[in-house]
Amino acid sequence: MPVGEVTITLEDVATLSGLPIDGEAVIVDVPDREWSETCTRLLGHAPNDLSGGVVKLSWLREHFNNLPPNASAEITRQFARAYALSLIGFMLFPDRTGATVHLQYLLLLENWRTAGGYAWGAAVLAYLYREMGRSVLHLTQSSSTGGDLGGWVALLQLWAWERFPLIAPRHTVTDEPITADASPRGARWLPAMTRQHGDQLFSYKLFFDELETIVVSNNISKPE
User: Fold this and answer.
1) How much is the pLDDT for 196?
2) Closest by CA position to 23, among listed 98, 122, 171, 130
3) pLDDT for position 218
4) Residue 101's beta-bridge partner residues?
C-alpha cells in the first residue's frame, strides 16, 4: 500500500478472536492409523464412508446436534469433542471445500486439560497465511481465476474493518461507525449489530490508492 506493507499479526489474532497465542504448538503426529477406530473411541461411532481420516461436517451435525437427556459423562465428552471438531473444521482450520475436517484435530481434543494449553491462535494465523499463499500461487499458474481460499477468512475481514474504518460496517440503527468495545474485540462486529456500506467498489479502490495512514492500535475506542 502507499504507506508500506501491512499484515495481520499475532496480536491482532489474540485481540480479535480471544484465542491463545502462547502455549504448546498445535502439531499432530499422524502416522498410518485406523481412523475409524480412533473416531469410534473418541466420538462413540464413525461414519461408514470414512476415507483418509476425513469426516464431513454434515455428519457431525447430524449425529451430534442434540445431547440426549440424562447423557453419561462419557457421552457428554464425546459430544463436546464433536462440537469442538466442528468449530475447527468450519471456522478455525477450514479446508477449501468448507465441508470436511480431518480427524487429526480430534487427537488434540482427547484430553481437555491439554487441549486448552495449545497456542490455537498462532496455529490459526499460520494456517491462514499458508492458505493465502497457496491461493496466490494457484492464481499465478492460471490464466483466469485463482484457487478457493481456506483458513479463517472472517478473521482477515475483521482485521481489515479494524484497520481501515472506511470499509467497515456501520451501526444498523444509527448508521454511525461502530464504537462499542467488546471482548474479544471482534465480537463488536456481530452481524446483528452491523450492516455493510452501500459504497461501490471503485470508492474502495480510490481509498486504498490514496491511503496515507492506518489504524495501528488495537486499543482504540473509536474508528477514525
Assistant:
1) 56
2) 122
3) 59
4) 55
